[in-house]
Design a protein that fits this description.
Number of strands: 2
Number of domains: 1
Order of helices and strands: HEEHHHHHH
Helix content: over 70%
Strand content: under 5%
Strand order of the largest sheet: 1-2
CATH topology: Arp2/3 complex 21 kDa subunit ARPC3
CATH architecture: Orthogonal Bundle
Structural class: mainly alpha
Largest sheet: 2 strands, antiparallel
CATH class: Mainly Alpha
Shape: globular
Distance between the termini: 17 Å
Radius of gyration: 18 Å
Length: 200
């Protein structure tokens, strides 16, 4: 029994490691959105974590998020003293943990969809709070750039943005809602194909 448990644990660790590396690679592929400034680009690196969480449980998804960001800091370095990676880990973890926790209560398509909707809302709210109170003020101080200058960059592509509050409402919130929708739409068909492999 102990041997079987160890083998299963080893298999899970291998799967988590592979998904973490995939998530790290996906981080390299970013795309701008028409209403967001150049420093705010979308990536889908939470997708492997979400799929892993659906297959192996919420904790597995959080571990994948953690390893992804550790790999990013270790191999790519950081321009934000680790603050950006910490925020990425927290927000990504909240998304995958929320979505997969609801799915694991009763595994069904309905619960998967509900979970991802809740995860998307949680991610949008968490990222709004993080940007308002931590990220934007930190970047402003770290790079000696007034918050007004950051807002100005956003205003050039989104005229509705006039201050930090409108930046959060009209840029950060829709940005994360779109990200959550894209992750959810892609996760459903991919999970269906990968689930048999991940559950072996």
């Amino acid at each position: 029994m102990l041997v079987l448990r160890e083998k299963m644990d080893t298999k899970s660790m291998v799967k988590i490691s592979i998904l973490s590396v995939l998530a790290f690679i996906i981080m390299f592929f970013e795309a701008p959105l028409w209403f967001a400034p150049p420093f705010l680009e979308i990536d889908l690196s939470d997708l492997p974590a979400l799929i892993g969480a659906f297959a192996m449980g919420p904790v597995a998804g959080v571990v994948i998020e953690l390893l992804k960001n550790i790999l990013n800091i270790g191999l790519q370095g950081t321009d934000t003293a680790g603050i950006g990676e910490l925020a990425n880990f927290i927000v990504g973890s909240l998304f995958v943990f929320s979505a997969s926790s609801i799915y694991f209560r009763k595994k069904s398509l309905k619960n998967a969809i509900i979970g991802m909707i809740v995860g998307t809302i949680v991610m949008a709210v968490a990222m709004s709070v993080a940007n308002y109170f931590v990220l934007i003020p930190f970047y402003s101080k770290a790079y000696g750039m007034p918050i007004e200058a950051i807002i100005g960059m956003a205003s050039k592509v989104n005229s509705i943005v006039v201050d930090l509050k409108t930046f959060i409402i009209y840029t950060v919130v829709p940005f994360n809602l779109i990200k959550g929708v894209l992750l959810s739409v892609l996760a459903l068909p991919l999970y269906k194909k990968l689930a048999p492999i991940l559950k072996r």
